[in-house]
Amino acid sequence: MRILGISGSLRRESHNTRLLRGAGSLLPDGAELEMFDQLGAIPPFNEDEEQQTPPAVAALNAAIAGADAVLVATPEYNASIPGVLKNALDWVSRPVQSTPLLGKPAAVIGASTSLFGAVWAQAETRKVLSTIGARVVDREIPIPQAEEALGPDGLPLDDDARELIEATLTELIELAQRERATA
Amino acid sequence: MRILGISGSLRRESHNTRLLRGAGSLLPDGAELEMFDQLGAIPPFNEDEEQQTPPAVAALNAAIAGADAVLVATPEYNASIPGVLKNALDWVSRPVQSTPLLGKPAAVIGASTSLFGAVWAQAETRKVLSTIGARVVDREIPIPQAEEALGPDGLPLDDDARELIEATLTELIELAQRERATA
Fold first, then answer.
1. What is the mean pLDDT of residues B93-121?
2. If we measure between CA atoms, which residue out of B81, B93, B179 comes closest to residue B123?
3. I need a surface site. Which of B9, B65, B77, B156 has the fewest CB within 10 A?
4. What is the CA radius of gyration of chain B?
């Protein structure tokens, strides 16, 4: 079982990249997290260039197609999804009939340094993924005040938050197993 | 009175770029539309690079600072704001204390080839602009089925839609005049 991790932040010391790795450490035996690390190389989406897929977009398409499920960790910029993350999803969504996200199990988690834990960004990301055709786990994991909330392993110090992440991963894996069984 | 026009689509024959020019032709004497044409040159936002403003971001900051108001025309990608447009706004929003959008009058219009006229993208763009601190005109101009809806001059063939654009521009200019008077 391969889970593709996508962090919506390009910052080197990103809380969300750390959170994603932390979540990866909670995966059961037989499941592993692979990080997509070329988000910053994806150019601005331009419909005129839709026919010539840029290399980083081709890499993202292939990584999603090769994964059983996708796990996104997103920060929140200006009460919404980061432009960088949305731009990547805009590319991947085309052409709509053959996007690798079609029917793909996906879940969204997120951390922010504010008091709200990136809930708007997570909600918008779930909406966008659903619109593209992914099968999205209906859970939200708000991690506010990320600087204090996350331990050195990238996992929330708070037990409840950690359990929420485990529950989300469990649902994501169940979805992926069901997809596999019916494929 | 200078209105900065920002199209959320990079496509050469973009309906939204045409719509923006059409709206510009409706401006009263003494007000003119200037188009920002470097959106495609804005790199992915990365907090690590926030201190070294990229040239296209500096150009956008200067264009907004030099304008009395901002008029955004946005398509809708995957039921939300285009990543390209959001990424530009993410850059412009930093640092939060000195963004040129603070207190800046702004309005959002939009066209899509679907039946819904980019209403979700417009709503998200208004939310994002408000969050950054702009003074946003509370109006929505949905232009569905843009291919048939817009004339060669970029204006809606439908009189009601054209009147909605005029009403929006009037409100935007009033806001800008009030800002000027109190500045």
1. 96
2. B81
3. B65
4. 15
Domain ranges of chain B: 2-182
For residue B179, the one-letter residue type is E
Residue-wise pLDDT tens digits, A47-70: 999 989 999 999 999 999 999 999
* Contact indicator for B173, B137 with CB cutoff of 8 Å: no
* Chain B contact for A50 (CB, 8 A cutoff): no
Q: Chain B contact for A87, CB < 8 A?
A: yes
**Per residue in B62-103, pLDDT tens?**
999 999 999 999 999 999 999 999 999 999 999 999 999 999
Contact at CB, A81 and B86, closer than 8 angstroms: yes
Task: Output the 3-class SS for B126-137.
Answer: HHHHHHHCCEEC
* Mean pLDDT of chain A, nearest integer: 96
Distance of CA A3 to the CA centre of its chain: 10
Class of domain B2-182: alpha beta
Q: In this structure, what is the dihedral angle of CA atoms B178, B180, B182, B183, given to the nearest 10 degrees?
A: 150
B57 in contact with chain A, both atoms CB, cutoff 8 A: no
Alpha carbon distances (Å) from B146 to B39, B118, B151, B156: 22, 10, 9, 8
| Contacts of residue B26, Cβ cutoff 8 Å, sequence gap at least 6 | B155, B162, B165, B166, B169
C-alpha distance from residue B171 to each of A121, A162, B26, B32 (Å): 30, 49, 13, 15
Q: What's the token pair of residue B36?
A: 């920002």
Q: For position A37, what pLDDT does the model report? A: 96
Residue B111 touches partner A, C-beta closer than 8 Å: no
Residue A183 — pLDDT band, cuts 50, 70, 90? confident
pLDDT for residue B182 is more than 90: no
DSSP state of B77: B
> Which residues in chain B touch residue A47, judged by CB atoms under 8 angstroms apart?
9-11
Which helix (H) or strand (E) is B174 found in, with range? helix B159-182
Residue B171, pLDDT > 80, answer yes
